[in-house]
Amino acid sequence: MISLFEEYGVKFAYLFGSRAKGDRPPSSDVDLAVYLGESEPGRRFDKKLSLISRLGVIVKKDVDVVVLNDVRNNFLLAEIIRKGKVIFNCAPDERFAFAVAKQHEVTDFITHFHHVATGTNFSKN
Fold first, then answer.
1. Contact at 8 Å (CB) between 64 and 32?
2. How far apart are CA 80 and CA 33, in angstroms?
3. N or C: which end of the chain has fewer CB within 10 A?
4. Residue range of the domain that includes 37
5. Which CATH number goes with the domain that contains 7?
6. Could you give the CA distance from residue 53 to residue 69 in angstroms, rounded to a whole number?
7. Cα-flanking dihedrals φ and ψ of residue 31, to 5°?
8. What global pTM score does this model have?
C-alpha cells in the first residue's frame, strides 16, 4: 500500500471509521482519508477514483477514499483528525500544519454554530 500511496503523490493518510475504532464487522468497508500533493481538483478526483479501485483489490474489501484537500465538512474533518489513525506520513510537517489549521477551523465553526444556535453574541461593542 505504501508504494501505491507514493505513486499517487499521497502526502499522508488516515484510517478512520469503524476499522480505526477496532470494529471489524465482516461487511464493513475500509475508510481512508488521503492528502494529495496534486493541486488540480479534477486530477485529485481522478486519483481518488483510481485509488478506490486499486486499494479495493489490495485489501479485498470495499474502500471509501476521502481526499482531505477537498473536504469542507468540519465534523468529518474533526472525526478523521482526532480519531483516525495515521497509516502513511511522508510529510510530517505538512500533516501537522494541516491538522492544526483544520482544528482551528473546526473550533471556530463550532463556536459560531453555538452562538447561532443559542442566540448569544460575544462580540465586543
1. yes
2. 7
3. C
4. 2-118
5. 3.30.460.10
6. 20
7. -100, 120
8. 0.83
